[in-house]
C-alpha cells in the first residue's frame, strides 16, 4: 500500500513522476483541482459549499477543502493507495489530513520532496512557449519543436510566452511556493516519513530514485 504526497516547487517534475507512479503501482492520482471540479459538477453538498466561496471570489476554507479530500478518499479506487496532488499546502491542512487518514484507516506511507535548484527551475519554467494558432505547448529545454520555429501540431510559426512564464514572474512564484513548502517539509521530517530526491537528474533517474523509496515499503 502506497499513500503518498509529492512535494516540490513548480517545475520540479512532480507531474511526470506522478504519471509514472500511477502507471507502475496502479494507485489513484488525486488532484485538488479535479476534485473541486468533479464535486461542483456532481453538485455534492461539499461541492456546492465550495462553489459558494468560489463564486464570491473567496478562498475555499481549509475545513471545506478537507471535507472534499475526505469525500474523495472514501472512494474505493483509493483502497490500493493514492497520490495527493495540491493538498496539503500548509501545516494546518497537513493536520487536517492526519485526522482524515486516521478516520479512514489510510495512513500516509511516504512524503517525497523533489529538490531542484531555484535557478534551474527559473530556466525550466521560463523556457515554455505556446503556439498562437493551436495552443500546443513547448519547452525550449525539454520539449522544443521538431523544426525550429514551426509548430509540430499545426505547422504555425507564431508563438508567444504567457505572462506567468516570464522569468521575473516565475521567480516571484517560486518564492511564494518556497515559503509554503518549507514548513510542510519540516512537519513531515519530524514525523519521519520525508524522503528527498534530486530532481535535477533525467526524468528516468528521478523516477528510479522515487521507485527505490516506494519499493522499500
List keywords for this structure.
3-stranded antiparallel β-sheet, about 220 residues, globular, 5-stranded parallel β-sheet, ATP-binding, alpha/beta, Adenyl_kin_sub, 8 strands, single chain, Rossmann fold, about 50% helix, EC 2.7.4.3, transferase, nucleotide biosynthesis
Write the layout of secondary structure elements.
Blueprint: E1 2-7, H1 14-25, E2 28-31, H2 32-41, H3 45-55, H4 62-73, E3 81-85, H5 91-104, E4 110-115, H6 118-125, E5 128-131, E6 137-139, E7 159-160, H7 167-191, E8 194-198, H8 203-215
Parallel strand pairs: 1-3, 1-4, 2-3, 4-8
Antiparallel strand pairs: 5-6, 5-7
Structure, explained:
- With 217 residues, this protein is α/β, with parallel strands linked by helices.
- It has a domain at 2-117 and 194-215: P-loop containing nucleotide triphosphate hydrolases (Rossmann fold, 3-Layer(aba) Sandwich), CATH 3.40.50.
- It is 48% helix and 16% strand.
- It has eight helices and eight strands; from the N terminus they run βαβαααβαβαβββαβα.
- The protein has helices spanning 14-25, 32-41, 45-55, 62-73, 91-104, 118-125, 167-191, 203-215; strands at 2-7, 28-31, 81-85, 110-115, 128-131, 137-139, 159-160, 194-198.
- The strands form two sheets. Strands 2-3-1-4-8 form a five-stranded parallel sheet, with helices on both faces.
- The longest helix is centred in the last third of the chain and has 25 residues, at 167-191.
Amino acid at each position: 500500500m502506497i499513500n503518498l504526497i509529492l512535494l516540490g516547487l513548480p517545475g520540479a517534475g512532480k507531474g511526470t513522476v506522478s504519471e509514472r507512479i500511477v502507471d507502475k503501482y496502479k494507485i489513484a492520482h488525486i488532484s485538488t483541482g479535479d476534485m473541486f471540479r468533479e464535486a461542483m459538477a456532481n453538485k455534492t453538498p461539499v461541492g456546492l459549499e465550495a462553489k459558494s466561496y468560489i463564486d464570491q471570489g473567496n478562498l475555499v476554507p481549509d475545513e471545506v477543502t478537507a471535507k472534499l479530500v475526505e469525500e474523495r478518499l472514501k472512494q474505493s479506487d483509493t483502497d490500493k493507495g493514492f497520490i495527493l496532488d495540491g493538498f496539503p499546502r500548509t501545516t494546518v491542512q497537513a493536520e487536517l489530513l492526519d485526522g482524515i487518514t486516521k478516520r479512514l484507516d489510510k495512513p500516509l506511507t511516504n512524503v517525497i520532496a523533489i529538490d531542484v535548484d531555484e535557478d534551474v527551475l527559473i530556466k525550466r519554467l521560463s523556457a515554455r512557449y505556446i503556439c498562437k494558432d493551436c495552443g500546443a505547448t513547448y519547452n525550449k529545454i525539454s520539449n522544443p519543436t521538431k523544426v525550429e520555429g514551426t509548430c509540430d501540431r499545426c505547422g504555425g510559426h507564431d508563438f508567444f510566452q504567457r505572462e506567468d512564464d516570464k522569468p521575473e514572474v516565475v521567480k516571484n512564484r517560486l518564492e511564494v511556493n518556497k515559503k509554503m513548502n518549507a514548513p510542510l517539509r519540516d512537519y513531515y521530517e519530524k514525523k519521519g516519513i520525508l524522503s528527498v530526491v534530486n530532481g535535477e537528474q533525467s526524468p528516468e533517474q528521478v523516477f528510479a530514485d522515487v521507485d527505490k523509496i516506494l519499493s522499500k515499503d
